[in-house]
C-alpha cells in the first residue's frame, strides 16, 4: 500500500503484548554482582486472583532519544554519591529529617540499580526488570520497607524530577505507589506551565480534568525527557495510543487542546480525535488504498482501477468516491475473481456474467439486495468511461476497452425501481402525518419530565429517595473527600422493587440523570428545529452561533430573523426565515450551548461521509462530554428520536413506528406545498436544485387521482344549470352573511356546511363541526368539572339515564379539550400562515 499507518509497528507490539502472558524481556546481570536475579515481570493476576489491567506495550522498551542539551543526559553518567548530592541540593528547602529520608531512599535505589549491567542509569533500570514489574518493583530486601516504602518512593520521585530515570508509560500508569506528577510538573513546568494554567480552556474545566491534563503532561515529559515547549504531536499520540491499547480511560483530550492553544502543537489538528483520525483508518485514503482494502491481488486490472478512481476523484466528493469504489471493486471485480480467479481483463464470458448477477442479487447473509441498480449503473459508467477515454488516450485506456456486462435494457429497469421507492416514501409520509402531533406532544412531555427528574435528583441527598411520575429513585452521591472528586454528572438508581420506566434509555443499574435530561432537551430541540425548517441532519449539526442572522425589510422596517444554512449536500447556500416558535427553540439551544458562559465553546465536527474534521466553530448543537466539547452525532440524534417514538407508543397497523431526521424534511415539504407554498419556493427552502426532487417529496397523493378529480369537476360544471351562474341578489348575500354570523358560539365557531341545520340542537360539545377556541379552555374545564359533580350525584341517586348522558357529555368535553390543546401547541405550517396573511 502507498499509505502505511505511522503507528503500525506500535500496534503490532500491542497485539503481541495482548497475546503473551507477560512481556517478553531479556534480563541481564553482572556475574560478579550480588544482585544476580532480576525482578520477574508482574503476573497478570493479583494476590486476590483478580485479573490486573493490561500492561502497555512499551513496558521494558528503551525510552526515545532525549533532545540535545537535555538535563537527564548529563545525569546518566554520574556516580551514586554525585546523584545523592544532587538530590540533597534539589530538596534543600525541606527539613533535615525529610531530606535525609529522601536521600536514603535514592541511595538505596541507586545502589541496587548499580548492580545491573549498563553504561547509563536508564539501561540499568531496564536490566533490573523493574520496568516490567510496576506492582512489585519495591519488593527487595535492600530497599527501605518501613513506613509504607516511603523512603524508596520519595527517592524514586526525586530521581524522576532530576530526569535520571525515564520509566515506560506502562510503569507510570500501573505503579502501585503512584508517581508524584504534581511535584514533577511544578519543578519542570517553568513559564510554559504558568501560561497553560492561564488559558480559558484550562480555567473553564473541572479540577479533576485539570489534574488529569497535568498528570498526562508530566508523564510525557518524564518519558521523552523534553520540556513543554519541545513536546510534539507524535509524542502525545504515542502516549495516548499506549493508554488506549492497554484498556484505560483516555484523558488526553484537554491536554491536546491546551498544547494546541499554548503553541507546541499549533500546527497539529485542533483536537486529539482529529489528530487520531488523520493517522488512523477513519481518514480519507488514497485511491490505491480504496482498491487494496478489498483484497484485490496485484494485477493489471488492480492498477487500472486505481488509475480510474484517481482520474475521476477531482470531480467527486470523498463519500461518493468511496461508495463508487465499493460498488466497482467489492461488488463487481472482487466477485468476478471469486467466480474466475484467472480473469485478467474486463472482457467477461457469458457464464461469468450470469454467475455474477446471481451473486449480486443476494447479500452475504443470504437476503435479497435492495440496492442493485446503483451497482449496475456504476459498472456501466465504468465501461463507458473507458471507451470514451480511449479516444483521447488510446495507449493508456484503449487496451482495457471491452463489451459492457450490463445491457442497456437491464439498466432501464432502474426507472421502475425509482418509482417504487418514491411510492414507498410517499406512503410513509402519509402514514407519519397524523402521528406527528402525538410525537411532538410526547417530546414536550419528556423534556419537562427529564428536567423535573434532574431537579429533584439534585435536591435529594445521598441515599435519599425522590419520586418522578410515580417512580421512586434513590440519589447516588457519596460524599466527596477532596475537591478533585467533584462530579460533573448527577447519578441515581431505582428504589428496590421499582420497575424501570420506559423513558430512561439503557439498562444500567446506575442512572445518569444528567444524561436523561440531555436526551430530553436535545430530542425536543432537534424535533422542533427540523419540523420548522426541513433542513438536513448534517445541516442541523453544522449550525453555529454565526448562523443566526436577521434582515430588516426596506419597505416596512420589520426585523425578519433568518437561519443561515451553509453549503452541504448540493453546495447550495440558503437563508431560511425563522418563525417565532423556531426563534424560541434556537435561543434555548444557544443558552444551553453556552453553559453559563459568555460565548459558545468551540468544537470540531467530524464529517462521517467525507472522513474529515472541520475547523473549530461555536456549534449550537454541541454538548460537554468529559473535558471536551463535542458536536452531536447523527447516530445520537437518531437514537433519541427512535427512543421517543417508543415512549410515545406510535404504531401503524400494529407495527411500531420510528421517526428519523429525514422524515421531518419530507413532512415539512409536504405541509408547505399542500398549504399553498409555490413549488419553486419550497425547493429554495429545502436546498433542492431540481423541482422534480421537491415534487417527489410533496406528491403525497397519486397524480392520476388528482387529474381525474379535476376532470370530473370540470364536467360537472358544464352540466350545471345556467341559472346557477347568475349574480346573487342583495337579499341572498345578506342571508349568506347572516348565516355565518350565527356560527359564533361560546366555545368557538361552528364549521358546518352552508345551508345545513344544526343536527345536535345546539349541543355543541358533541358536534364534530365545532372548532374550539383555545382561549375557551377554561370554560371547557368548568363544564367538565360541573358535569363530573352532576355525575356523582346521578350515581348516588341511581338516575341511570342521567348517568349515561353525563358520561357521554364528559367524553366529548375531553375530546374538544384535547383538540384545543393540540391547536395551541402545534399550529399550522408557518409559511402557509404567511401566505394567508
TrEMBL record:
Domain of life: Bacteria
Segments forming a coiled coil: 777-823
SUPFAM superfamilies per UniProt: DNA breaking-rejoining enzymes (SSF56349)
Gene3D superfamilies to which the protein is assigned, alphabetical: Intergrase catalytic core
Chain spans, region Disordered: 1-45
Organism of origin: Mycolicibacterium septicum DSM 44393
PANTHER family from the UniProt entry: PHAGE INTEGRASE-RELATED (PTHR30349), PROPHAGE INTEGRASE INTD-RELATED (PTHR30349:SF64)
Protein name per Swiss-Prot or TrEMBL: Site-specific integrase
GO biological processes: DNA integration; DNA recombination
Compositional bias (Low complexity): 11-22
Tyr recombinase domain segment(s): 477-710
Amino acid at each position: 500500500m502507498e499509505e502505511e499507518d505511522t503507528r503500525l509497528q506500535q500496534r503490532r507490539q500491542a497485539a503481541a503484548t495482548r497475546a503473551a502472558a507477560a512481556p517478553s524481556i531479556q534480563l541481564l546481570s553482572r556475574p560478579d554482582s550480588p544482585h544476580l536475579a532480576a525482578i520477574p515481570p508482574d503476573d497478570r493476576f493479583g494476590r486476590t486472583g483478580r485479573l490486573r489491567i493490561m500492561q502497555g506495550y512499551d513496558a521494558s522498551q528503551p525510552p526515545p532519544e532525549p533532545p540535545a542539551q537535555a538535563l537527564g543526559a548529563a545525569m546518566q553518567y554520574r556516580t551514586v554519591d554525585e546523584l545523592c548530592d544532587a538530590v540533597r541540593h534539589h530538596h534543600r528547602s525541606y527539613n533535615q529529617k525529610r531530606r535525609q529520608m529522601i536521600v536514603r531512599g535514592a541511595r538505596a535505589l541507586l545502589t541496587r540499580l548499580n548492580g545491573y549491567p549498563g553504561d547509563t542509569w536508564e539501561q540499568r533500570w531496564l536490566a533490573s526488570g523493574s520496568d516490567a514489574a510496576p506492582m512489585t518493583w519495591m519488593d527487595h530486601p535492600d530497599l527501605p520497607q518501613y513506613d509504607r516504602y516511603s523512603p524508596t518512593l520519595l527517592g524514586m520521585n526525586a530521581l524522576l524530577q532530576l530526569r535520571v530515570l525515564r520509566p515506560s508509560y506502562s510503569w507510570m500508569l500501573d505503579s502501585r505507589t503512584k508517581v508524584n506528577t504534581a511535584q514533577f510538573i511544578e519543578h519542570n513546568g517553568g513559564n510554559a506551565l504558568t501560561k497553560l494554567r492561564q488559558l480559558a480552556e484550562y480555567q473553564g474545566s473541572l479540577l479533576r480534568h485539570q489534574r488529569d491534563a497535568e498528570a498526562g503532561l508530566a508523564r510525557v515529559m518524564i518519558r521523552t525527557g523534553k520540556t513543554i515547549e519541545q513536546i510534539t504531536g507524535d509524542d502525545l499520540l504515542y502516549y495516548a495510543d499506549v493508554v488506549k491499547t492497554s484498556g484505560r480511560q483516555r484523558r488526553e483530550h484537554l491536554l491536546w487542546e491546551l498544547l494546541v492553544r499554548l503553541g507546541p502543537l499549533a500546527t497539529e489538528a485542533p483536537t486529539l480525535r482529529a489528530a487520531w483520525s488523520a493517522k488512523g483508518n477513519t481518514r480519507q485514503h488514497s485511491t490505491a488504498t480504496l482498491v487494496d482494502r478489498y483484497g484485490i491481488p496485484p494485477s493489471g486490472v488492480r492498477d487500472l482501477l486505481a488509475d480510474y478512481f484517481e482520474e475521476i476523484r477531482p470531480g467527486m466528493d470523498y463519500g461518493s468516491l468511496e461508495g463508487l469504489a465499493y460498488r466497482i471493486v467489492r461488488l463487481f471485480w472482487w466477485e468476478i475473481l471469486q467466480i474466475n480467479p484467472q480473469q485478467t481483463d474486463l472482457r467477461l464470458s457469458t457464464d461469468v456474467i450470469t454467475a455474477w448477477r446471481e451473486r449480486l442479487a443476494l447479500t452475504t447473509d443470504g437476503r435479497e439486495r435492495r440496492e442493485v441498480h446503483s451497482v449496475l449503473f456504476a459498472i456501466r459508467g465504468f465501461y463507458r468511461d473507458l471507451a470514451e477515454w480511449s479516444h483521447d488516450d488510446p495507449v493508456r485506456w484503449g487496451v482495457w476497452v471491452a463489451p459492457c456486462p450490463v445491457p442497456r435494457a437491464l439498466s432501464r429497469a432502474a426507472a421502475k425501481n425509482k418509482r417504487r421507492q418514491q411510492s414507498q416514501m410517499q406512503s410513509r409520509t402519509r402514514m407519519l402525518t397524523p402521528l406527528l402531533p402525538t410525537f411532538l406532544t410526547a417530546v414536550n412531555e419528556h423534556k419537562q419530565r427529564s428536567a423535573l427528574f434532574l431537579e429533584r435528583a439534585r435536591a435529594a441527598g445521598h441515599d435519599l429517595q425522590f419520586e418522578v411520575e410515580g417512580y421512586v429513585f434513590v440519589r447516588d452521591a457519596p460524599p466527596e473527600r477532596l475537591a478533585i472528586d467533584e462530579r460533573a454528572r448527577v447519578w441515581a438508581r431505582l428504589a428496590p422493587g421499582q420497575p424501570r420506566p420506559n423513558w430512561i434509555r439503557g439498562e444500567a443499574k446506575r442512572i445518569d440523570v444528567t444524561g436523561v435530561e440531555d436526551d430530553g432537551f436535545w430530542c425536543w430541540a432537534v424535533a422542533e428545529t427540523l419540523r420548522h425548517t426541513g433542513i438536513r441532519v448534517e445541516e442541523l449539526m453544522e449550525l453555529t452561533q454565526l448562523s443566526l442572522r436577521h434582515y430588516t425589510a426596506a419597505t416596512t422596517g420589520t426585523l425578519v430573523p433568518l437561519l443561515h444554512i451553509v453549503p452541504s449536500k448540493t453546495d447550495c447556500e440558503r437563508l431560511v426565515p425563522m418563525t417565532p416558535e423556531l426563534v424560541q427553540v434556537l435561543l434555548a439551544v444557544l443558552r444551553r450551548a453556552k453553559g453559563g458562559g459568555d460565548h459558545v465553546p468551540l468544537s470540531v465536527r467530524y464529517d462521517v461521509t467525507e472522513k474529515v474534521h472541520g475547523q473549530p466553530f461555536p456549534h449550537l448543537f454541541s454538548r460537554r462530554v468529559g473535558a471536551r466539547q463535542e458536536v452531536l452525532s447523527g447516530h445520537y440524534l437518531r437514537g433519541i428520536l427512535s427512543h421517543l417514538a417508543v415512549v410515545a407508543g406510535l404504531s401503524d397497523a400494529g407495527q411500531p413506528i420510528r421517526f428519523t431526521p429525514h422524515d421531518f424534511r419530507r413532512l415539512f415539504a409536504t405541509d408547505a406545498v399542500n398549504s399553498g407554498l409555490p413549488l419553486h419556493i419550497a425547493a429554495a427552502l429545502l436546498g433542492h436544485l431540481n423541482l422534480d426532487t421537491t415534487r417527489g417529496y410533496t406528491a403525497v397523493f397519486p397524480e392520476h387521482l388528482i387529474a381525474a378529480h379535476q376532470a370530473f369537476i370540470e364536467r360537472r360544471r358544464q352540466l350545471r344549470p345556467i341559472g346557477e351562474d347568475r349574480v346573487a341578489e342583495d337579499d341572498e348575500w345578506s342571508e349568506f352573511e347572516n348565516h355565518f354570523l350565527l356560527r359564533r358560539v361560546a366555545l368557538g365557531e361552528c364549521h358546518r356546511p352552508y345551508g345545513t341545520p344544526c343536527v345536535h340542537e345546539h349541543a355543541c360539545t358533541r358536534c364534530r363541526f365545532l372548532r374550539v377556541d383555545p382561549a375557551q379552555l377554561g370554560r371547557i374545564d368548568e363544564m367538565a368539572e360541573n358535569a363530573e359533580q352532576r355525575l356523582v350525584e346521578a350515581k348516588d341517586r341511581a338516575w341511570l339515564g342521567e348517568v349515561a348522558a353525563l358520561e357521554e357529555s364528559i367524553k366529548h368535553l375531553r375530546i374538544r379539550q384535547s383538540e384545543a390543546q393540540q391547536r395551541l401547541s402545534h399550529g399550522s405550517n408557518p409559511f402557509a400562515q404567511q401566505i394567508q396573511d
